[in-house]
Design brief:
The chain has about 250 residues and is of the alpha/beta class. It has a single domain, classed as Metallo-beta-lactamase, Chain A. The protein has nine helices and 13 strands. Helix 1 links the parallel strand 3 and strand 4. The chain is globular. The termini are close together.
């Protein structure tokens, strides 16, 4: 199993996960002009995609969904509450093929097995684990804290994509309005570098082959700060990198 980010910031978020036979897009916040070029840069086309999974309906995660569905008629998976909010907020040109993920059982999408768990954001939001090729990947983003059941679910992952959104010290000089800062620091906001690090420590991640820090604020965080903070909470030698904000990142190692 392999994964890469197509974009990872407050402007647009999108991640590709694939094994030998199945290719899934998680979120599609990309602008219409970027979808094909960004897929091309990682060796894919819309025709390679088998499904789209949605974490939540904020615009930086779903802006390009209606455009990708014009290019490729594929099912859209999420929890029932997320799909209801998606229907209310996105003006689709036709009726998408929505599929509700079961809450207490895994879902097979091609050769990949998906489980989801609830997160804590200001709209309905979920994270995922993916299993395929004998490996497991965890994905957690857009949450004000990491619930205990998520920590448990992610202890055995081989790969992890996790939010490390902001540095609280940088917020003291932020240009964001105070109410946005308060929201992002709250339990329905985003993970700080320190919160991300504490979650990494709780997971253990003794066999993790790669940790990717994502959704970094372009104004209120820096990759070096996020990496420095996360590194101290990980087992020595764990590969660690930050997803680039507005361009595709590298594929994880096969």
């Amino acid at each position: 199993m392999r994964f890469c980010t197509l974009s990872s910031c407050s402007y647009a978020n999108s991640i590709v996960i694939r094994d030998q036979k199945t290719c899934i897009l998680v979120d599609c916040g990309l602008r219409k002009r970027d979808i094909k070029p960004f897929l091309d840069r990682v060796g894919l086309t819309p025709g390679d995609l088998d499904a789209v999974l949605i974490t939540h309906c904020h615009i930086d995660h779903v802006y390009g969904l209606k455009y990708i569905l014009i290019e490729r008629k594929i099912p859209v998976y999420s929890s029932s509450p997320v799909l209801k909010q998606l229907c209310a907020r996105v003006p689709f040109s036709g009726q998408p093929e929505f599929r509700v993920l079961p809450s207490l059982a895994p879902e097979n999408i091609g050769t990949l097995t998906v489980n989801y768990f609830a997160l804590s954001h200001d709209v309905e939001t979920i994270g995922f684990t993916f299993s395929g090729d004998g490996e497991k990947l965890g994905l957690i983003t857009d949450t004000g804290f990491v619930p205990d059941y998520c920590l448990e679910a992610l202890k055995s992952v081989d790969y992890l994509y996790i939010e490390s959104n902001h540095d609280p010290e940088m917020y003291k000089h932020s240009r964001k309005p105070p109410h946005i800062v308060r929201r992002n620091l709250g339990v329905t906001g985003h993970l700080s570098n320190e919160q991300c690090g504490q979650a990494l420590r709780s997971m253990g991640l003794s066999k993790c082959k790669l940790v990717v820090l994502g959704h970094l604020s372009e104004e209120d965080n820096e990759p070096r700060r996020a990496i420095t903070c996360a590194r101290q909470f990980l087992p020595p030698g764990t590969p660690l990198l930050c997803a680039p904000p507005r361009t595709p990142g590298p594929w994880s190692p096969p």
